[in-house]
Write a structure and sequence with these properties.
about 240 residues, His-Me finger endonuclease fold, 3 domains, 3-stranded antiparallel sheet, rod-shaped
Length: about 240
Amino acid sequence: MLAMPAHGGVVAVWGEWCRLDAAVRARARQATSRQGEAECEAVGSGASAVEGGEWAGWRMSITPENAHEHWMRERGAVVASHGAGLYQANPHEFGPGKVHIVDAENEERTVCGKWLKAVPGKRKSEGRATCKTCLNGVENRVYRKKREHEWRQRQAALEAERDAKNKKWWSWYSSYLESPEWRQRRRMVLERCGGVCEACRVAEATEVHHTSYAHVGREPLWELRGVCAPCHEAITEMDRRRRG
């Protein structure tokens, strides 16, 4: 019996299903190139040893005709582990009754949308799902959660990269404000405005405001304005809100 991943391990379930899918399809391709069920059985047992014992004791004659059937059975076991159990529908006039997957998000329904109370049958804890709609539905959920997990990882990496760049930039900027080059520019800007705030034209200009950081470090003087402390604080806050 294939060891099943722990319930809730979204990435583990998806990885196990992909591995299983590839393994069964590989066996089908190998079987297609051979003649006779005996040779196909040898291929299956040989693959067991190669895969490190997970398939020890597993023997089946894989032919092009039964490969898909076998894959569906194993797929039903792997994918069903991500639901909240199975539900065996009673036999009816159209067939023996499918084995559905109970929806983990709403245990009164199956993944394919059927209400348990409306479908005669019983719940079961072991076995394989046979409802293709349930199987596809769970696979889609696993795939979406896998992509969401990958997206969150990428976003976390991008945020960490932005934080590192911001920290490096602010470290450099703080050093620049202590440099002789900045002190000279600051002095020339305050002399140009005559010591009067260029924002309110009332208070004394004691600080220098950047209208742009595009050329920070080598700013032309027209990108710098002499301002008083209250105006500087208000302008900085407006710029921060505008950037969001």
